[in-house]
Amino acid sequence: MDHLIASHRNRPTDDPIFSLDREAQERAKKGESIINATIGVLLNDEGKLSLLPTVNRLIKETPETEWSAYAPIAGLASYTQSVLNDLFADLPNLRPMAIAAATPGGSGALRHAIANYLEAGQALLTTSAYWSPYGTLADESDRKIETFNTFAQDGTFDLDALDTAIGRQLAAQGRVLLFLNDPCHNPSGYSLSDAEYTRLTALLRRHGETGPVSVLIDSAYAVYAADGSRPLRHLGAIADTVQILVAWSASKTFALYGMRVGAIVAVVPDEAKRTATQAALSYSCRGTWSNCNRGGQSVVATILASNEIHAQVKQERSNLVAGLDRRVSIFNEHATKAGLRYPRYDGGFFVSVFDDSPKARGAQMRAEGVFVVPQATSLRVALCAVRESDIPRLVESFARPLAAQ
Question: Which CATH superfamily is domain 6-52+311-399 in?
Answer without folding.
Answer: Aspartate Aminotransferase, domain 1 (3.90.1150.10)
